[in-house]
What we know:
Layout: H1 7-16, E1 29-30, H2 35-43, E2 49-54, H3 60-68, E3 71-76, H4 81-89, E4 95-99, H5 107-114, E5 119-125, H6 131-140, E6 147-153, H7 154-160, H8 171-179, E7 180-188, E8 193-194, E9 201-208, H9 218-230, H10 236-243, H11 248-258, H12 271-290
Parallel strand pairs: 2-3, 2-5, 3-4, 5-6
Antiparallel strand pairs: 1-8, 6-9, 7-9
Helix pairs in contact: 2-3, 6-8, 9-10, 9-12, 10-11, 11-12
Amino acid sequence: MERLTNISTVRGILSRHGFTFSKALGQNFLINPSVCPRMADSAVTDDNTGVLEIGPGIGVLTNELCTRAKKVVAVELDRRLIPVLGETLGEYDNLKVVNADVMELDLNKLIAEEFPDMRVAVCANLPYYITSPILMKLLEDRLPVESITVMVQKEAALRLCAEEGARESSAITCAVRYYAAPELLFHVSAGSFMPAPKVDSAVIRLTLREPEYKPLDEKLMFRIIKAAFSQRRKTVLNAIASGMSLDKRELSGILESAGVAETARAEKLTLRDFAQIADAMDAIKKGGNDG
Ligand code: SAM
């Protein structure tokens, strides 16, 4: 196979297929030869691993995954890239390309059908316009996957991997930490892509795990988290009260019974704090209904 990190090779393939990059689909293809092998090594732990790739582009990462994994299923939205992938990766019989929008797919069904008896990993150079929705779908769908190794914008990587209590933490940091242990693997410069984006990137790995603290009502906890971070400069009392249209006096009692200082800012709260606020709110709601 021709080297898919060689700029003139890539230009040749793309011009043969009359392909032009779509900014709207986040098409920045990797041309730094050291990045994809490292990502694939992080995703594929043994030769019984099945890999779900999102957005294979012309197949530069897919190629590395196919040489390591038992099977690769690559979901690509852009129909124009399907014949390109046929040319670049036609030699692999452990690859299936699916022309679809990953957001529209039932990934639990796809994994059950495509990777029976395999350990499963997700690996992707994500389209940046849709990073958070894709990650939230992968996490909230509770897929039977061991890890998610993805390239994202550097700022997103810092947010996603922020420690609890760090300035960069946000609602998505909490969501990620609820479902997974995040780690930042390495940085990637903007010049590693064609065309080069305006910002640098980083590769992160999320190792999925059972939540450490489970509230009775997860949805309620995530509503509280969203409200608390939506006005992050305010105290949690003010931010949650205004974000959820709650009476401040009642909320103050809830925070007290959860053991959370009402003057704290959202970023200082741990997941355990948010779970306890949700449970205290739940208890009051139920008490109210009973009485
Ligand atoms: N993996 C290739 C690489 O590293 O060079 C391409 C990565 S490029 C950043 C993102 C890819 O995701 C593009 O091929 C784009 O067409 C595809 N894509 C964008 N939105 C998508 C979606 N909703 N579902 C599936 N693929 C999508």
